[in-house]
Amino acid sequence: MRTTKSGGFTLIELIIGVLMTTFIFLGASALILTLFGTSGKVKKSQTLDQTKNDIQVELSNNIRWAKIIDFDSNSITADANVYKFESDGKVYKNGAALTPGDVLVKNVTIKDYSRAVTGGEALSSLNISLDLEDVRSSNTSDHLSLVVSQRRTKIETGD
Q: What residues does 134 pair with on adjacent strands?
């Protein structure tokens, strides 16, 4: 009697192969989902950082070199530039939105820290504090606290 061995796989080998393939695909899909989730969080964080930087640069530069500064609880006027912190969560400069649509600005406080008188002229110093929040996720937020002092430059010539 001759026995021949076939070149196929046994049922156990096929089941083990299917299980290993399933685990590999599950691991790969979990990794991909994690990477996509992290990418979204990073994008939200970058949006908040960019908005915070834009507000900081805009307010710092214009308040620092303004000749006339006026403010109340929800607006700052620096020369011809009017910054309004509206209840819709946006910051406006001269009527145009300064913040993107996916960022809310909340809890704005403006305090007067003015004390110094330079050359017979009082210079303003403001503490501006605000919270930034991503519209899509209230878990993503940031805080900006900015102290800006008005400056003057005086150029004297030796004539």
A: 103, 137
What are the beta bridge partners of residue 93?
83, 96
Helix (H, G, I), strand (E, B) or coil at 113: coil
Tokens read off for 138: 């209230």
- Owner of token pair 């992290």: 38
What digits encode the pLDDT tens for the residues 58-100?
999 998 888 888 899 889 999 899 999 998 889 999 999 988 8
Which DSSP symbol is given to 17? H
Give the number of C-alpha atoms closer than 13 A to the C-alpha of residue 124, restricted to the C-beta side.
Answer: 22
d(Cα 122, Cα 116) in Å, to the nearest integer? 6
Going by C-alpha positions, the residue among 84, 39, 79 that lies closest to residue 63 is 79
The ranges assigned to domains in the chain are 11-149
Main-chain dihedrals φ then ψ at residue 48, nearest 5 degrees: -65, -45
Residue 42, both tokens: 């990073």
